[in-house]
Structure formats: C-alpha cells, structure tokens
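ingest -> validate -> predict -> emit
validate: passed (alphabet ok, no gaps, 431 aa)
predict: started
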Amino acid sequence: MRTSRIDGTETTDMDMTKQGNNPNPYPVLRNIQYSPMKQGEEHYIILWDPAGLSAEKLIVPLNFFYLFQFLDGEHSPEQIGVEYLKKYGEFLMPDKLDRLIADLDQKLFLEGDRYEAAKAAAVKAYREAPARKSRFAGKSYEADPQKLREQLAGFFTSKEGPSPDPSENQGKSIKGLVVPNYDVNVAGPLYAWAYKELREAEAPDVYILFGTAHAGLAEPVAVTDKDFESPLGVVPVNRPLMEVLRSKGGDALFADELRHETEHSIEFQLPFLQETVGARQAISIVPVLSAFPPGCLQDPGLKDFADHVEQVVGLLKDAIASSGQRVCLIASANLAHIGLRYGDDKAPTDFSFHRCMQSDLEMLKHVENVDAQGFAEFLLKEQDHRHVLGFSALYLMLRVIEAEKGEILRYDREIVDQFNSTITYASAAFF
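emit:
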C-alpha cells in the first residue's frame, strides 16, 4: 500500500506538477474513512478507501482536512478556497488545493471517470474469478493451513476462551450465533466462545452469514453467489437458497456484490466454521452483507431503504422455508465504536467506557430476547451516539431467526489507537 503526504509545503510519492487542471469542477469525495494520527507535536489525518478499490493512503494536516467537508459536488475549488480563508484568515494558494484534489482523484478517492473505470474493471474481474479469494490470510489470521488449525485450537484453550467443560446446550439444535468481526489474531478467543457452542451442538448444514459492510452499500443489502476460498479449502454457497434469492429478489440483491471482495466480516468466520463443523460434515453458506442505520426504519425519507430491508427479510424466510434445509444464522458484528477515530470530539475515559459498557449490556438484552424492534428502538432513543456499526447484521438475524431466546456468552473491548478509541464486541448463541 502506498502512502503519500500533503502538507502546507510539499507533496511526496507523486509528481503532482503534471496533473493539470482538476478533473471535476465540483469535486465529490467518496465514502472514504479517516483516522487521526500524531507525529511529535503535530496532528494529521490519514485517509484510505474502506472498499479496497484503492490501495493508497493519504496523510493531510488538520487545516487541509477541514476542506474535505466541502468536497460535496456543490463547491468549486475557488469556493473551497474562500471557505479556507473564512476559517483560517489566510489565502490557500490555488496550486496547493489543485495538488490536493488531483491526488485525491489519482487515488480514486473522488467520484468521477477514473473511479468509475476502476470500479467497472474490478467488477468484471470479480465476476470472472472462480471464487472469492481470501484477502486477510497472513494478515489477520494464519495463512498456512496447519498453523491456522493450531491457531484456532489455541483460541479455544486460551485463558480468555471458553471453559473446557461441556456446554449446557450440548446436542441441541442451534439456530444462530453472534460473533465479533474484529481482527482474528486479537479477538480469536471471543470467536471461540460462540463456535464452541456450534461445535457441541446438533449442527446444521447451511449457514447464512450476515456480515457488516464497513465500506457502506448503495442498497441496504448485497448478496454474492461466489464460493469463498480459505486456507482450509473452498466453502461453497448454497445453490438452492441462492436460486430462490435470485429468482425472487432479482439482480438488485447482487448489484453491489463487489463489496464482498474486500470486506473482512464474512471471511473471518470461515476458518472457524470449517474447523468446528466442516471437518466432520459438508457445509455451505449464503453470504449477505448489510449496511443500514436504525433510523431508516422510521424516517419517511428513508422509506425505500426500509422497504428493501423488509423485502430481504421476507425473501430469506421464504427461501429457508422452501428449501427444507436446517439453517443456522450468524451475525458477524461488532458493537460500539467510540473515540476520535469514529468521529467523537474527545478520547474515551475509563468512566465513558464504563457508561458505554452499561449501554451495550442493556442493548444486548434485546438481542438475547430476539427483540429486533426493541433493539432498533434502543439505538434510535440514544441516537446511536456509540456508533454500533453491527446494527444491520444483528437486526437482520433477529428478524429472520426462528429462536425464542439467546444467551450472551462473552463481552469484551479492544483499544485500537493511541487516542484510546475503542471497539466493543460480544459472542452469543441461540437455540
């Protein structure tokens, strides 16, 4: 991954003098993620493409980052320069702004022809590939099959992992799981709490994986019919269920399937599925990515989104019923995201984390009770100020699952940067 840096005096890693005029007179920033960083006494923002279409990163000083809110398709570079003058009381030289906009376009961070061409090529390559390849093996978990099996076994025996004693639900028919999607190298023992229940249960053959689309989606849900590769082998999609979804849901369900190529939340579940169940019986999956806020369920302006969600819930229920297959639903979802990295105006303290944990545990009571409506209303009431990014995956699972009760098995958190930004997550099982 290449990283370039723009500050008040220079640009590195790229000859910006050859870029010419800005490609778009009213530039529009894509859905790019950002995070604060500190070098000495200086503060910067690092930006990257969560969709993975661009492998580039860009580092900008805070005064340049202020301008990004005006990359909205309604401001020309000249107007953006005026906003800079209003904020900082000094002129921003046009060549510096031109270099910034040109670098954003070069990195595919802006909407426009360059981005559309790159996206079309990526979609074509994805459709022509025999399977969705594993992208995070060797990064977030072991790539060597034997080392991966040893790593997975270590999660189950870790002091942070589940008890070696048999589960109280041993031998029961399992209906669903909630599992984190944080880096497996770090959160593996939390995964093990959920997958121990699956390993000791009467396991089904089909797994509907509700993944969190961290890069966002054009529609609330994106399905893919690609088999998934893993260091432990290929996990096939369930063709009968997929045929029902395509025949009744149409191509719209698959329109944004390219998001599956770079999203980690489904991939992280596969080695656990393969090792806990796939080693003793054939398994198949239905990969479903989702990204919609609780507000879409009651905001009249987002009625189309809400209708789409209802359609997907109905399609999945119909597909499960008509297939006659035993199905387990897995929500791959983290919970709260608090701190500067996630848009808060200050870093978390021990007190603020304790309050966040209390809210998480209260929220998770609705998950245990399979209360999708109560879960959504809880987040609506608090205006989702804790950024529960796994909402959509959890909501879909709660709407589709045929279970009366769940159990939260384990809850934990991870500090992710030097500013104490924190992610929380939990494991749960439903019978």
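DSSP finds 13 helices and 14 strands in the chain.
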